[in-house]
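hey so i finally got around to running the thing on that chain from the lab meeting. sorry it took forever, my laptop kept dying and i had to restart like 3 times. anyway pasting the input first so we r on the same page abt which one it is
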Amino acid sequence: MLNYTIYHEAKSKFAYMFDKDTIHLRLITSKDKIHKIEVICGDPFYFRFEELEKDKYIMVKEYETETYNHYFIAIKPKYKRMKYSFIIDDQYLYGSHEIIDILVNPNSKKNLFNFFNFPYLNEEDLFNAPSWVQDQVWYSIFPERFKNGDSSINPENTLSWGETDRYSNSQRFGGDLQGIIDKLQYIKDIGFTGIYMTPIFEADSSHKYDTTNYFKIDKDFGDNEKFKELVEKAHNLGIKVMLDAVFNHSGFRHPFFLDVVKNGKKSKYYDCFYIINGKLPVTTIKLNENMTIKKESASKYHHNPDHLNYRTFAFTPYMPKLNTNNKIMKEHLMKVTKYWIEEYDIDGWRLDVSNEVSHQFWREFRQTVKTLKNDAYIVGENWDNSNPWLQGDQYDGVMNYEILFPIWNYFGTNIDNNPYTSTQFMYKINKVLTDYPKNVLKALYNLVDSHDTTRILEICSNNIELVKLPYLFLFTFPGAPSIYYGGEIGLSGKHDPDNRRCMEWNSSIQNSKLLNHIKKLIKLRNEYCDFKTTDFRWLATNDKDKYIIYNKGTLYFIINNNPNSITISLPLELSNSKFKDIYNETYIEFNDKLKINPLQFYIIEKI
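ok and heres what got predicted. didnt touch it at all, straight out
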């Protein structure tokens, strides 16, 4: 019998419909235990065993991770249905119910009951994200800190732009929608094709994740007409606009929740939230005259969440959790969803804390969005593996934090964890590449930092030359890369709230080298479609000298993640060859050795 692991699962990330005619099969095995995997397949109602020798389907070893080899094959079943099993090293049949030694029991190859099944390629079940997403480059904006464009609407106690080096979430600097409008051409000129803004609806905080009115632009940012102007001007420049849907929780002062606080069970909105003990007051927290929470009375709830009598986001008394299964609340949020698409023609929704909201709500949300605008983009804020949400019935993509952390741990020099070796980095990236179907990979929202994390420049110890490397890798991963505002000009920052510094608009302080690097990466990604492909081929991962070499289509990427000069023994296919250096716009020739400078990289195409 087999003495190693082998695994496959029907109708999953191991067996999925890639397009209307194609099934992708994946299978994992213990590392370096298997030499050959053949797929036996045919229509369950017209299986012709005598024809199996004619059409051989041999799986390829696509990737490896720490403990597994990952095999792959694409098959187009003639009649849209497929029964299949796997033959391992010409000896074992791996089926849906058991593994059989076919040298001992040759007739078992004809037992279709032990075959996996892909019942039918129903086109309506196909994962179908908007086609434009894979060509997108997002610019992520925290509006309050991007640009003060209209000082006449500055909130009380607005500080001068960037006057402090000790940022907090209570500070106001006057960033607004007019400021974003003023800089749309700047965004366009760099090459960004979409903007994602953190929440802009009425709320009490500077970050606006405590919504009090989902239909109204916060007065600190402008008004609904100003937002309409922003969308129209963005669209005229070919820039998509994506808003933040905070549907897991609201602000304490949302009128529904205030009604519950006031009237308890008598409130028609009582079940719009999660009240823990109906026999107790909804809250005993002390409030100001305007019904905001007195800060000094909130601390005990943070220190002991058992004091809370209503569910919240992260035990934050300011943010009561919404019951999205409640009819009144669900209708309210669906009206919000419709309103911003119908009235303002937004292009997408980013879903805050999306993995804490029910799958059923997101299914109905998707139906609402896609009915109004079929090519609108829906991206969830999930920090973990998200296949359950990416079956074609909920999200189009997720914020891909699963590549952010490997990128930090490999390129970062200011991290809490032990750094990854080149080989470990390859394994982690391969895991993401095999965790998601290839059509899903194309729709992911990729990032190296965000308003919720330390900035990537800080992770790289504020070394401009070093930070170019994670940005380079980001742009070679399938899906849509995103730059957090200011990342392109060298804005740094520790974890929230320091990562929300005011954007630096003084060009003499901006880092022009980094800005030009980002511009060039965007330009190259637009010119060379191989940047966007889903397949990586690793040619070298050197742990001692800390470099990686990988191939995508016609392009080769050599990255020296070493603060010292090194000499690389080139793989055979790169040795003694001529190349076009597409980054530096020149031609180069390699021998079998390559001396490469500290933190240097090549993006080359063989000629």
